[in-house]
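To assess whether the prediction recovers the assembly geometry, we first specified each molecular entity separately, as shown.
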Amino acid sequence: MPEQSLVTLQGLAKRYGDTPILRGVDLEVAKGEVVVIIGPSGSGKTTLLRCINFLEDFQEGRILVDGEAVGYREDNGRRLKRPDAEVARMRADVGMVFQSFNLFPHMTALQNVMLGLTQVRRLDPTAARERAVSWLQRVGLGEKLESFPSQLSGGQQQRVAIARAVAMEPKVMLFDEATSALDPELVGEVLKVMADLAHSGMTMLVVTHEMRFAREVAHRVVFMDQGVVVEQGSPADLFGNPRTDRLRQFLGHFAPKL
Amino acid sequence: MMDLVLASAPLIGRGLLITLAVSASVLVLGTALGLIGGLCLLYGTRPLQWAARIYVDVLRGVPQLVLIFAIFYGFPVLGLQMSAIAAGILALALFCAAHVSEVVRGAVGSIPRGQSDAARAIGLTFRQRLRHVILPQAVGRFLPAWVNTAVEIVKSSSLVSLVSVVDLTMATQQVVGRTREALLFYAVAAILYFVVNFALSLASRNLERRFSHA
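The predicted structure of the complete assembly is given in tokenized form:
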């Protein structure tokens, strides 16, 4: 019996108007697995992540998170959009970290992390505060609880954003180019937090251009191009023996770094 | 001259109070309706968006005085009797709501998409996103334009004098009629209008500072 998958994508297809973005993606992510998605820009990686917590709708296929269909319910073969409250409840179990951090600028670091805990998880303020503080300490920001986002560096902001997502105790974490907007010297601190999280057993889907992170932390690497999964396998396999020209060409851009 | 002003002070003071009461009522009612209108423009279902769009465009395209006359003289024909002051407040509030709708749409619409993405991602519902994430940030952007509207409303409130409400303008007219001191008393009225509006601007600048966390 193979390990049950936590996130399942079946034939996922999405278009913007007439432009196809995803053209039938199948993917399974097991509990505790770290999957890194690589590929050229415009290959649909970000859109794929955003479909998993239904920040984007999609036209075809299914996404299951822990057995439950994301975004739509099937009723006698008809596909119905789930109501706002249901979508929100499912999103609470899927953490997401964005390229541009997206911290709430009118709230302190602590308030950013506490918001979901009090409003969505319905923790009382004391318990929420305790959990938020412990996560902020874990990402190395125990001294910055009362700082507003504008007073923090990019790396610090992104670590708050990670704490905000992880504190919800989601079943899976999505990272959408979490280090792409950072100055090079700040990338390391964020990758370190992500690696710690991966080693703690968190299920993760990571879209990134950091090939070293993919090589060292991923259990599996997925290469996407033009809206489909072209190749996937262990980091050693994928980076060592790319089977397709498209992947070879893509990796060629990173050759000096590898 | 001082005697003249002092003798007329009670009448002008009562007029000023009416002007303040009319303006405040219009702003409270108009802002509440405008908030609803703005949210309909942004998040309403298609028909609701259209209804709000038409309302805003029509109301902004009609002179306020025509609105006041239409309600004061027109509604009784439909069997809706209304006092002059109520008709004036209603007419100006409907006008104010149209402007505030646009202001709300602009302020809320200018919050970056990433903010609502992040709010969605932690599982907040639509209402929670508005209440905790979007509206608190929109307030800072909303206030300056809202004050412009408020200043316009205070000035427009003088139109209710044309349906015989004794506001600051009408009271001034009455005093002038009695004393023949047109220049003096219209200057007094002008100064009073200015002071009210200047106070409004100052108050908003303070609020703006409190709401900006740049």
